[in-house]
Specification:
Helix content is 31%, strand content 32%. By secondary structure, it is an alpha/beta fold. Helix 1 runs antiparallel to helix 2 (28-46) and helix 2 (28-46) crosses helix 3 (86-92). The chain is globular, with a radius of gyration of 18 Å.
Length: 211
C-alpha cells in the first residue's frame, strides 16, 4: 500500500525481521540485532532519492566515472526507543550526523512532552531522517518535526517500524510535506494508545527493561 505520504516497505527480509520483532519470546539481544537489520533496509528506501555527483576515479585497470553523495544526512532519533534505529542508518551512511530529541508520552493525555533537544548545525541544508519504532498517536512525531522545522530543517522524512492509521492521519495533516516510511500499517490503537497488533513497548524490548 502506497500513498503520496506513506510508503510501506514490502520486502521479504523486512517481513522476516518484523516477524522476529513482533514475536513475544524474542530476547532483547536478538531484538536489538534484528532492529539494526530492518532499519538498514528501511533507510535504504528512505534515502533512495539522495542527490549524487559524478566523479572521475581510477580503477586498477582504467579511468571511469563514479558517483558520490551530494549533501549531508542527519539522523534524529526520538528518545529513547529511536536509538535502536540509528545503527542501521549509520551502516549505510557512516558519516551521517546524529541529533537527539527526548520526548515522552503523558499517560493521561497521550500527548508528547519534550525534555531534551540536541541537533547538529546546518540541518537547513541536510536530509533529515527522524526515526522512532512506533507511529502510534502521532503526537511525538508531530512535535519532533515541528521542533526541527523551527530550527530550519526543510527536507524531512519520518521512518518507523509499525504505524497506526491514527498516527499516519495526524502526521499527514500536521506535516503534509513529510513522507512516512514504515514496515507495516497495523490495525488500530487500543484504549491505552498502543498499536495493535504492534510489538509491545519497543524501548523496553530494546534495552531489556520490560521485566
Amino acid at each position: 500500500m502506497d500513498t503520496p505520504r506513506l510508503t510501506i516497505v514490502d520486502h521479504p527480509i523486512v517481513r522476516r525481521d518484523l516477524t522476529v520483532l513482533r514475536r513475544l519470546g524474542t530476547p532483547h539481544g536478538t531484538f536489538r540485532a534484528t532492529l539494526s537489520s530492518i532499519s538498514m533496509h528501511l533507510a535504504y528506501e528512505c534515502l533512495r532519492d539522495l542527490p549524487v555527483s559524478e566523479v572521475t576515479i581510477e580503477t586498477p585497470l582504467e579511468q571511469t566515472l563514479g558517483h558520490e553523495l551530494r549533501g549531508s544526512v542527519v539522523v534524529i532519533p526520538i528518545l529513547r526507543a529511536g536509538l535502536g534505529l540509528v545503527d542501521g542508518v549509520l551502516r549505510l551512511i557512516p558519516d551521517a550526523r546524529v541529533g537527539h530529541l527526548g520526548m515522552y508520552r503523558d499517560e493521561e493525555s497521550f500527548e508528547p512532552v519534550s525534555y531534551y533537544e540536541r541537533t547538529p548545525r546546518f540541518i537547513d541544508s541536510a536530509r533529515v531522517l527522524v526515526v522512532d519504532p512506533m507511529l502510534a498517536t502521532g503526537g511525538s512525531a508531530e512535535g519532533a518535526i515541528s521542533i526541527l522545522k523551527e530550527r530550519g530543517a526543510k527536507d524531512i522524512q519520518f521512518m518507523c517500524l509499525v504505524a497506526a492509521p491514527e498516527g499516519v492521519l495526524r502526521l499527514n495533516k500536521a506535516h503534509p510535506d513529510v513522507p512516512i516510511f514504515t514496515a507495516a500499517l497495523d490495525r488500530e490503537l487500543d484504549e491505552n494508545a498502543y498499536i495493535r497488533p504492534g510489538l509491545g513497548d519497543a524501548g523496553d524490548r530494546i534495552f531489556g527493561t520490560q521485566d
